[in-house]
Design goal:
Blueprint: H1 8-11, E1 23-25, E2 33-37, E3 39-47, H2 52-66, E4 69-75, E5 90-98, E6 111-114, H3 117-123, E7 132-136, H4 142-147, E8 164-168, H5 170-177, H6 185-189, H7 192-203, H8 209-218, H9 223-242, E9 248-252, E10 264-268, H10 269-284, E11 288-292, H11 299-305, E12 313-317, H12 321-333, E13 337-342, H13 344-360, E14 364-370, H14 387-392, E15 402-403, H15 410-425, E16 428-434, H16 435-439, E17 441-445, E18 465-466, E19 472-473, H17 516-531, E20 540-541, E21 548-553, H18 557-569, E22 575-579, E23 581-583, H19 589-594, E24 598-603, H20 608-617, E25 622-625, H21 634-646
Parallel strand pairs: 2-9, 3-6, 6-7, 7-8, 11-12, 11-13, 13-14, 14-16, 15-16, 21-22, 21-24, 24-25
Antiparallel strand pairs: 1-2, 3-5, 4-5, 10-17, 15-23, 18-19, 20-22
Length: 647
Amino acid sequence: MTSQVSSPAEQADGAGGALVGEQRIPASPGGKEVRRLDRVIIRFAGDSGDGMQLTGDRFTSETASFGNDLSTLPNFPAEIRAPAGTLPGVSSFQLHFADHDILTPGDAPNVLVAMNPAALKANIGDVPRGAEIIVNTDEFTKRPMAKVGYETSPLEDGSLSAYNLHPVPLTTLTVEALKDFGLSRKEAERSKNMFALGLLSWMYHRPTEGTESFLRQKFAKKPEIAEANVAAFRAGWNFGETTEDFAVSYEVAPATQAFPTGTYRNISGNLALSYGLIAASRQADLPLYLGSYPITPASDILHELSKHKNFGVRTFQAEDEIAGIGAALGAAFGGALGVTTTSGPGVALKSETIGLAVSLELPLLIVDIQRGGPSTGLPTKTEQADLLQAMYGRNGEAPVPIVAPRTPADCFDAALDAARIALAYRTPVFLLSDGYLANGSEPWRIPDIADLPDLKVQFASGPNHELADGTEVFWPYKRDPETLARPWAVPGTPGLEHRIGGIEKQDGTGNISYDPANHDFMVRTRQAKVDGIQVPDLEVDDPDQARTLVLGWGSTYGPITAAVRRLRAGGAPIAQAHLRHLNPFPRNLGEVLERYEKVVVPEMNLGQLATLVRAKYLVDAQSYNQVNGMPFKAEQLAKVLEEAIND
């Protein structure tokens, strides 16, 4: 047995290039060689109708059940059905799985499965030399190749000689495997993604029982279709076992050292966020009300929450964004945990009602799953460009707390944190996720209910103020001295009648007021309430007393951390800190920034956090920005940070 051990830098999370950490182990019973790897990055790519998202999701589920750490990057067109075989219609799903802790879906795929010429051409630029490429040769005919600009077949002209090319007639093999099912050729061809999934499952020793069970459940009303898909899946597995083109299979051991003891499941950011909202409502002992209008990439939260009426969840699919948040704010007035979900364009439409919520001082969660903008922008691509909109996108002085999760699984905890702030301080709260987190997935440790925070609130139940003549009355804007939160009075409670509306309130009484001094006091009080929100101090990871700090927020956590690992593995000192709370900032942020000669802020925008940091702390923060609709790559950030260290 021989082994090849990669260097620490090569083993760092997100590295591209050839398979690393490779180790040969004795041949399988079938006589084929088996090699053990520490990690693999696979990308499935095809037409938007080829089922690549389903294929990737199933491979991910089986990988999670096997015990690997993983991270995924679904990437699909914005069009419901782009023209078949065209570059804009290519859909892909990238999965990075390993026997150790990882944080990103990887920079470059070790394996590309291309279902047609468009998929190959759209993705070949990301594939490093020496990688495995599996192509469906049945699609490489003259017309599909011409449609994407191939004058000659790339399978025959030598242009792929730098790769380990595996030409497989996936369509033909699938149709042959299903010839006894009585399906038309078109119906049989639809199962070619399951054939590909079976082949990859054999190559990487993935479990199969879960996928077969899933297919039978998914097509329970059409058992012949279910069994056809199972047959195609098994045929792909058997093809890998018997064909001479695949002489090697690979094993990636479970990541036994990466996770604390517990029960885990694979989870996407939107699903984790949905569960977090449900958990928050249960911990607060309040009904959860979602007022929402469907918008990519936030719609999955509406879909998921609509399934959980048994937990006291009520979902309202409104006719537009304004109605959605209006209903959610009304529910908050009525004593529910009000939530509205949207993306950047929807936030613009909701801005007036968010301002109303600031004035009414009611708890409300505004979940913004950010995407590329402006306007309609890039509906299926990711971006972090709504930070300043969340911070300032309302008329007047209307401060709103902002919370941002950093990984798909962290969306659960961020939802609980946002709910804590909204309920304790009686304020609307922004929860800023993005398309990368929403659609990506990773293992999530299911928490113990006993470990979740207690979010229970006390509604006002009687008078809270005594007038000069001794009369006891209810003042809706009399504040808690610690939180500056006003009382939450549920409509219909005898004696607690009070006014609501958008016109400025008189301090204490809540009566309409146009008094300049009162307005000044109320504006400053609402700002002081947000400024006084208790958030944890910023933690800094700095084992080497570095001179350079990289500061991030939101979904840049994975790529930044992977880049930092690379630099440290090479001996370069660098410090890292990541913000969850963007308004208010942690109280020690200024002190942290002052400790470093250089501060680098990578963002998927044109420098919004850097602008806030420079303005508030007078720190010469250096921006590194990307707005191409895709997350940062670890190698890309590592080079930038290395230059900052050495500059």
